[in-house]
Design a protein that fits this description.
Elements (H helix, E strand, L loop, with lengths): L2 H16 L17 E4 L6 H12 L2 E6 L5 H5 L2 E8 L2 E8 L3 H13 L4 E6 L9 H10 L1 E2 L2 E2 L4 E7 L13 H4 L3 E4 L4 H11 L3 H9 L6 E2 L7 E3 L1 H17 L13 E2 H17 L12 H47 L6 H24 L5 H27 L2 H45 L3 H12 L1 H10 L1 H9 L3 H13 L1
Parallel strand pairs: 1-8, 1-9, 2-5, 5-8
Antiparallel strand pairs: 3-4, 6-7, 10-11, 11-12
Helix pairs in contact: 1-2, 8-11, 10-11, 11-12, 11-13, 11-14, 11-15, 12-13, 13-14, 16-17
């Protein structure tokens, strides 16, 4: 299965493992909840998908790389305890709590989440001394004398031997204790991920041109090397950052992330072509060579993605601000029933709620439950709230008490109205851009591969697809009908023949 299918299977497993009877007990007892094992090549996104699943399912997440653990750190250290049996006192061996289990309990205290995922990465790289303890943990969910809290699901990941010479084959006893899921690389799934995660457009365009360059691993010494999805994503991040800072991108950079000389060299040439194409108007795309058409096509998609994300951001911020200020307003109205109106108290309530929200976000960040997009969204919300509180404080200090109170009561709806208008403006701009580009693609490439790639690119981006469905349903339907799996196969085959 590909990583998208694995993600959906993980969610179904979580729903099954956390399902309870009418009496509140788990339908599948903890001892019968087989740990999930994702087995696949390195850099394919196994760790990332665990983080996504935990966030989307609202679960806690504790992740450990097992290669860093010894038997002592996993099981805990032995201690000598005195116990009485049959009237006689004995000295027996006990264990301190495992570092791994202690981290689970610590996160439960921090987040208040009673259910979560314990993710054990590189599980087939553990030492020989740790393997018996790990086998016991997979079946009974215990390390030493300490048990994993009920409601926490064990998930793991590993690499097959053909990709990693330091791993060992798992024996039958181990395999028979896990829910085994084999993961394979899939470019089409990764392209959808790339569209929503802001992967550098030159990389997306290059892989449309050279899909066979997406993933390849050779474990043999002296082989050509390897390229992974992780390598492409990390290369994207450094490229975007260097460009944003106005720093030079050197010819050696791709080879520092893509450990395949031929692919790294081809991408460098294509990257320079992409940079050159940015100066050309898209209207000239029809007469350009194939590789240049792909570059210019990706630029059109990036323009739509950027507009769609601005539209989404404005809408999300409007909803967050509405929830925030209305919550403060309800607290203020409750307070007014027992004390005299005071505009500065409302400002204090806003400040307290903002601080509580900040602490909650910090806990999520420390526990690995905060995505980069969510962190950016929260930073924007805090900046906007702080700006508005500053304006109100200044106005309230200059006005009499009654007028100051009215100013604040009338002020926060105006803030919401401002952001609603921003979203409407973004809607108008995005709609105009989509209609302009769709008309151009129809006139220039009607029924050809370029038009298909354009429609596929739009439908892969969540913001663009949502907007099309809401504001341009006819266009959405026409694009959605073009997402045929046979067309996808034909597209890849056509790319290979170019």
């Amino acid at each position: 299965m590909n990583i998208r299918e694995a993600k959906e299977e993980l969610k179904r497993t979580i729903l099954a493992y956390t399902a309870r009877t009418e009496n509140g007990t788990y339908r599948i007892p903890t001892v019968r909840q087989r740990p999930v094992l994702l087995m696949g090549p390195p850099g394919i996104g196994k760790t990332a998908v665990m983080e996504q699943v935990a966030r989307e399912c609202g679960l806690g997440l504790v992740a450990y790389t097992m290669t860093h653990h010894t038997r002592q750190s996993a099981m805990g250290l032995p201690t000598m305890e005195k116990k009485t049996f049959g009237g006689r006192e004995y000295v027996v061996t006990d264990y301190t709590m495992s570092e791994i289990l202690a981290s689970v309990y610590e996160q439960m205290e921090q987040t208040g989440k009673k259910e979560g995922i314990l993710f054990l990465d590189e599980i087939n790289c553990v030492s020989e001394t740790l393997m018996p303890a790990l086998l016991q943990f997979l079946q009974y969910k215990t390390f030493g004398n300490h048990k994993l809290p009920e409601g926490w699901i064990v998930m793991a990941a590993g690499n097959p031997v053909r990709y990693n010479q330091s791993v060992r084959e798992l024996d039958t006893a181990t395999i028979d204790r896990v829910k085994w899921m084999e993961i394979a690389p899939d470019l089409s799934v990764w392209q959808s991920y790339a569209a929503n995660e802001g992967i550098h457009p030159a990389i997306c365009s290059f892989l449309n041109w050279k899909p066979e360059s997406f993933y390849g691993v050779q474990a043999e010494l002296g082989g050509r090397g390897f390229v992974t999805a992780r390598g492409w994503e990390d290369l994207s991040r450094i490229l975007l950052t260097l460009e944003e800072l106005g720093l030079a991108v050197t010819e050696e950079l791709p080879g520092q992330y893509l450990h395949h000389r031929e692919i790294a060299g081809e991408f460098w040439i294509y990257y320079r072509l992409y940079q050159a194409c940015q100066e050309r108007p898209y209207e000239k795309m029809a007469g350009a060579p194939y590789d240049e058409r792909l570059c210019m096509l990706q630029m059109l998609l990036q323009g739509v993605y950027r507009r769609a994300e601005e539209w989404q951001q404005a809408g999300e911020l409007f909803q967050s601000l509405e929830y925030f200020f209305q919550g403060c307003k309800r607290q203020d109205e409750t307070r007014k029933k027992t004390s005299a109106p005071d505009p500065f108290v409302f400002l204090e309530l806003c400040g307290e709620q903002l601080e509580n929200r900040r602490r909650g976000i910090q806990v999520k960040k420390e526990c690995g439950l905060l995505s980069s997009k969510e962190e950016e969204r929260e930073a924007l919300l805090e900046r906007e709230v702080q700006r508005q509180l500053g304006v109100w404080r200044l106005e309230a200090s200059k006005e009499k008490e009654g007028r100051a109170a009215r100013s604040i009561e009338e002020g926060y709806p105006l803030v919401l109205q401002e952001w609603m208008q921003r979203q409407e403006q973004q809607e108008e701009k995005l709609e105009a851009l989509l209609l302009e580009y769709a008309d151009f693609m129809e006139q220039s490439f009607g029924g050809r591969q370029e038009q298909y790639l354009f429609s596929l690119g739009l439908m892969e981006h969540q913001g663009a697809a949502t907007f099309l469905k809401k504001r341009l349903p006819d266009l959405y339907t026409s694009f959605d009908q073009g997402r045929d799996l046979n067309l996808e196969k034909d597209r890849l085959q056509e790319c290979l023949q170019k």
